[in-house]
Amino acid sequence: MHQESSAATAPERMSEHTTPAEPSVDLGSLRWVVDNDPSPRYPLYTRANIGEVFPTVVMPFSWTLWGIPHAEPGWCKAFVNLGAFDTAEFTDGEMEMLGVFGGYGYLNVSASRIFGLRTPGLTPEAVDQSFFGEQPDVPAFAPRPGDVSEKHTAQMAETLNWVFTATDLPDLLETRAEVEAVRAARPALDTLSDKALLAHVRTLCTQRWEALWVRHIMATYHATIPSGVIGVTCATVGKPELAADIMSDIGDVDSALPAQALWKLAREVTASPALTTLFDAGSQELPERLKADTRSDVVAFTKHFDAFLGTFGFRGPNEWEMRSRCWELDPATPLAAIEQMRRAPESESPAARAAGRKAARQEALVTVRGLLAGDAEALGTFNAGVGAAKVFFAGRERTKANCAMLTHEMRMAMWELGRRMTQRGLFTHADEFALLTDDEWTALLDGRLDTPAVLARRRLEETALAGLEPPFIVDGTVPPLTTWKKREQQARSIAPGMVMTGQPGCAGQAEGIARIVHDPGEPGDMEPGDILIAEFTDPSWTPLFSAAGGVVVNVGATVSHAVIVARELGVPCAVSVTGATHSIPDGTRVQVDGGAGTVTILALPEGYSPEGEGAKA
């Protein structure tokens, strides 16, 4: 079985010691150590998209290592490289494109809307759809002097021409090889001194991180172009529901690869009585039982699972956050996915589902092209958008994976440092390395930091913030923390026949039992064919997609990671279904229509009453 790094020696799961609780600090005066103020120039921010990858409180170490010094200026560089902005339109040294408000990460909407305004064929509203979905209370776009720019529109026309004619992105393969070389050259972390470990992390970040990030942001905006073209075209011909079909089956999506590999591992379990017996005994100590078993098929499985972790160990929840326990540190999530997949029929395999999506996509293409037959220009633009979607949706996921791989190399070194500090009694848990800023780490290793006092304060503040629900939109002013809603159990009125409406993710219909899942490593009572309902999903969730009958997500939009992967795997998916995890009780029978973006309540679980437990918060 895979041998974990010494950095992973029996640390508790992060959720065990960050459970939201009643605040122990004064919310009226609390300001998280990496909070900043909204930009006066670009005042509108959202939790959309970033809520998938930073669902919890942003950790000080990650944000001061790469967020403030590299992610913010890198986003601005990406806009300039695209041709949508000039460098002078950004304020040097200020956080404008990214924000941390009340401890939670936010993306700037104002600048993205200007990108849409300056891009021929796009609009600010189309950008809103691609990024932010059908969320309530999003202020309408109102252009300001200077937003319209003929110069930048001409530059973006050149960018569009390249996007619509590119057939591949060979530079991403070269970059992947470079990042894989970094992984292969990982030093023996347990032999490095404390200061050498920190220097290793800083060197990786300083030399490589920003370039990968700039490429990812560029790919993200490149992907909005074909998404917008396809969506607008389908709406124009009166077939908006076909956009989800057309944007599926794009192929070669990095985020879908783990699910495909895990399905093969699950088939090994299904075919082996020995492996089946081991999995039937439950997840408790499963890795140890597998490792100790010397039967040939079990040995072969553990070898294959080790190879899986070697390739995909960087994946996991909250991949941008170094505090996160990704699969190399904690294989519970992929093993849980195998447990789900082994009980699913072959008809639910990624390959079988993809075949169904391919047929639906071809039918949708024939329909839309037929409706455009009399307009050669519109048909040409549509066809160009369809071709670009295959290139740039996959490209966006590859750039994200490249960033995640490098972040993981930094993560492993910091977990080793955290393990050492725990052994010395400075930390309670190894992952508390993330509660310190980059500068505080320098002070700690120089013996100048009152570490217990700093950590005690940060723990209290994090706990207080983790108990709050951040507003979806921040428009110029961050609402006082005392006005934020508490994360608490919410029983809402719900009845059979009710329809909840969000946004199409992946077309198709599915009916099944709703399972509210908060941790991909702990899917609870979820069975093959059940409807997975989550507040958000990131690539660590996608292995569960293969066993799910359908997926419903509170947040998300047409180019969110969950949607791209759901389309690749052929799983009916509705996103931006606001409050789904709070409103739908676990065990409810529902119908998901991914093409319409709707969830219909068919029957409530036996014994349910709003006055009882209600939905799982």
Mind telling me the CATH class of the domain at 499-603?
A: Alpha Beta
Helix content: 40-55%
Q: State Rg.
A: 24 Å
Largest sheet: 8 strands, mixed
Instruction: Using the 3D structure, state the CATH architecture of the domain at 499-603.
Output: 3-Layer(bba) Sandwich
How would you classify the helix and strand content by structural class? Answer: alpha+beta
CATH topology descriptor of the domain at 499-603: Glucose Oxidase, domain 1
Mean pLDDT: 89
DSSP summary, beta strand count: 14
Record the SSE blueprint.
Blueprint: E1 44-46, H1 50-53, H2 60-82, E2 98-101, E3 104-108, H3 110-118, H4 124-132, H5 150-165, H6 170-184, H7 194-236, H8 243-246, H9 257-271, H10 273-280, H11 286-292, H12 296-312, H13 332-342, H14 350-371, H15 376-423, H16 438-445, H17 451-466, E4 468-469, E5 473-475, E6 485-486, E7 499-501, E8 503-506, E9 509-516, E10 531-534, H18 542-545, E11 550-553, H19 561-569, E12 573-575, H20 580-583, E13 589-593, E14 598-603
Parallel strand pairs: 9-10, 10-11, 11-12
Antiparallel strand pairs: 1-3, 1-5, 2-3, 4-6, 7-14, 8-12, 9-13, 13-14
Helix pairs in contact: 2-7, 3-4, 4-7, 6-15, 7-15, 9-10, 9-12, 9-13
Short summary:
The chain contains 20 helices and 14 strands.
Describe this structure in words.
- The protein is α+β, with helices and mostly antiparallel strands.
- The chain has helices at 50-53, 60-82, 110-118, 124-132, 150-165, 170-184, 194-236, 243-246, 257-271, 273-280, 286-292, 296-312, 332-342, 350-371, 376-423, 438-445, 451-466, 542-545, 561-569, 580-583; strands at residues 44-46, 98-101, 104-108, 468-469, 473-475, 485-486, 499-501, 503-506, 509-516, 531-534, 550-553, 573-575, 589-593, 598-603.
- The strands form three sheets. An eight-stranded mixed β-sheet has the order 7-14-13-9-10-11-12-8. It has a four-stranded antiparallel β-sheet with strand order 2-3-1-5. A two-stranded antiparallel sheet has the order 4-6.
- Helix 19 links the parallel strand 11 and strand 12 (573-575).
- The longest helix has 48 residues, at 376-423.
- Mean pLDDT is 89; it is low at 1-23 and 612-617.
